[in-house]
Amino acid sequence: MEAFVNNDLKEAFVIGDIHGMHTSLEEMLKNWKPNSQQLIFVGDYVDRGPNSAETLNLVRQLQLEHGAICLRGNHEEMFLAFLHNPISNWASYARNGGMETVAQLLGENKQTISQYSRIKLSRLLHEQHPWLEEWLSELPYFVEFGDFVVVHAGLDLTLQDWRNTSSHDMVWIRQNFHEMANKTGKIIIFGHTPTMNLHHDWNATGMWHKDNKLGIDGGAVYGGSLLALEIDHHQVKKVYQVKV
């Protein structure tokens, strides 16, 4: 499922993984020009960070009021799977930071919600946030903007046509994408893997670039940076970095 951009806008502002770092997101948005730039998020709005509920609400507000494109990350995928089938999928989601997100959305602490059944947690979320499941289910997997493709985790570069990449790989792929030659003719902007891991240096939280692949998950939730790119249809014009 592909998102579609506002063709009247000649530039885009692409923001990396947020993971509940609401204050950093607000700081980053000061650099965005709403009247001339398409806002694009690469996914992973929730889990692990201190303010997932506020982040989710802000991202959704920007979508409703400014046409922001909110791509699907693996954490949105896990959250949706939990809502669809709480009995089978709660343990996996909770291990990956979902406990914090659910607690924040329900206005409870983690100790309290740990005493609730999985069914009750899902029911309470549906009651208090009736828009949530449908919103998550409609998040697109990628968007094209000029010479760029923006996707959460990456693409299957072994395929003749990158568009045939599975939805699973678009939110989960790592090493096979990072190391494979990019022959797509596109510049691929992605998040998912913290750039410290790609740089092999825990202090290097800036953008990673190799073979027309641009990594912009600066590991904000791990004490790194929130990253964003200002692009036109053909090139990166500026890289923004908000250090945590």
Topology:
Blueprint: E1 2-3, E2 11-15, H1 22-29, E3 37-41, H2 52-66, E4 69-70, H3 74-84, H4 86-106, H5 110-113, H6 118-128, H7 132-137, E5 142-145, E6 148-151, H8 167-172, H9 175-179, E7 187-190, H10 195-199, E8 208-210, E9 213-215, E10 225-232, E11 236-243
Helix pairs in contact: 3-4, 4-6
How would you explain this protein's 3D organization?
The protein has 244 residues and is an alpha/beta fold. The chain has two domains: 11-73 and 139-243, Purple Acid Phosphatase, chain A, domain 2, CATH 3.60.21.10; 76-136, no CATH class. 38% of the residues lie in helices and 20% in strands. The protein is built from ten helices and eleven strands. The strands form two sheets. It has a six-stranded mixed β-sheet with strand order 1-5-6-7-9-8. A five-stranded mixed β-sheet has the order 4-3-2-10-11. β10 and β11 form a beta hairpin. α3 packs across α4 (86-106) and α4 packs across α6 (118-128). The longest helix has 21 residues, at 86-106. It is globular, with a radius of gyration of 17 Å. The two termini are 33 Å apart. The mean pLDDT is 96. It comes from Fundicoccus ignavus. Pfam families: Metallophos. Residues 14-212 form the Calcineurin-like phosphoesterase domain. This is Serine/threonine protein phosphatase. GO terms for molecular function: bis(5'-nucleosyl)-tetraphosphatase (symmetrical) activity; phosphatase activity.
